[in-house]
Amino acid sequence: MLFLRSSLFQILFYVVTFVLMIAASPVFLLPRRWGWWIVPFWSNTCLFLLRWIVGLKVEVRGRANIPAGGYIVASKHQSAWETFSLIPYFPDPTYILKRELRWIPIFGWYTAKFRQIPINRGKRSAALAAMVQSSKEAIANERQILIFPEGTRRPVGVEPVYKYGIAHLYKDVQCPVLPVAHNAGLYWPRASWLLYPGTVIVEFLPAIQPGLKASTFHALLVDSIETASNRLCKEGRSAADTSSK
Fold first, then answer.
1. Domain segments of the chain: what residues?
2. In whole angstroms, what is the distance from residue 6 CA to residue 192 CA?
3. Burial class (CB in 10 A: 0-12, 13-18, 19+), 213
4. What number does CATH give the domain 57-244?
5. Which of 1, 20, 25, 55 has a 20 to 30 Å separation from 225 between CA atoms?
6. Which residues contact residue 88 at a Cβ distance below 8 angstroms, ignoring those fewer than 6 apart?
7. 186: number of CA atoms within 13 Å, CB side?
8. What pTM was estimated for this model as a whole?
9. Cα separation values, 42 from 24, 86, 108, 182, 189, Å
10. 145 three-state secondary structure
């Protein structure tokens, strides 16, 4: 049954994504803000499918910590879940994503239309400079920059490796950084076809204000996200053990 539910969701995820991209194509004729509604609609549709098919719910904590205006959102990266599920919590988000995603037909057009920030990982110094400039423009327009400081998904329990680019971005852009912890990797593991029922807990932690040394900020960010994510994973495992008894 787990395999069947997981397969049904995985298939519907891509089918719904493709159908919505085609059906919403008229947004390319509209100003960016007028057409943005399709993105949170897609995210909420996928979350509904997760709950209905897989039995995967969401609990949100720390909403009061979300700042107003423009800021950076730095999220733990354990799963595919957070790549789309965080969108509805922010009014005008933009992702920092690898440039190659722009090359995907239709999907890449949407990333360009909604002014997501592509980076060329092959040219580190140039990529960092371009990322900083684009981020400054986004913050000036009171957008929220979503970034995964680890760069790639890390399985639950594996030693974290946070890139230092987030510290450079914090120092150069001079805006608050909102750390985000969660335990989604327990239910939608990295590189896994199977998804498990339960409750993803996502927690918005107190924002880190600008003005710290880059090294101090980096250490604080890593400690904040990892401490909270480990706590949430422990809580998730405990809840699973209790329900199985």
1. 57-244
2. 10
3. exposed
4. 3.40.1130.10
5. 55
6. 40, 43, 44, 47
7. 25
8. 0.93
9. 10, 12, 16, 21, 21
10. strand
